[in-house]
Amino acid sequence: MKSETEEMRFPLPTEPEGVIPSLIERFNSRKVSAMMELHDPHSVFVENDGRTLTDRGAIAARFERDLKLGLPLEATVRHVFVADNIAQIVVDWSIDGVGPDGKQIHLAGSACDIVRRGADGYWRYIIDNNQGTAVRESA
């Protein structure tokens, strides 16, 4: 029988095409630590208003806010473009359902993310831009 720690571990992707399936599994686990493992220690998260988060604590807090909705992430990959150890992933995503407050929630976007293969052979986010080319709100 697997220990609780082993059950919470998710394999890191060894190919860029594995990043989004890993993201979905990690997001739907509701584990911030699982989400953070998929991000390079020097990654950037782009907020909806265009600000960039570089502090790991701030990125984790952002994930915590989304995970507390308790709703599943769905995503469909449009394109994966690879140049050596860097890849761009274009993906349509949504989070839909009734939130903890009983109100209907619909979040969606077309992400344009950049991932990089590390020295360990695993692919991780270096730029997490979940709104892709959307026009940003004023900060």
From TrEMBL:
Molecular-function GO terms, alphabetical: isomerase activity
InterPro entries: NTF2-like_dom_sf, SnoaL-like
SUPFAM superfamilies: NTF2-like
SnoaL-like domain sequence ranges: 24-124
Keywords recorded for this protein, A-Z: Isomerase
Isomerase found in the keyword field: yes
Name of this chain's protein: Ketosteroid isomerase homolog
Native species: Chitinophaga filiformis (Myxococcus filiformis)
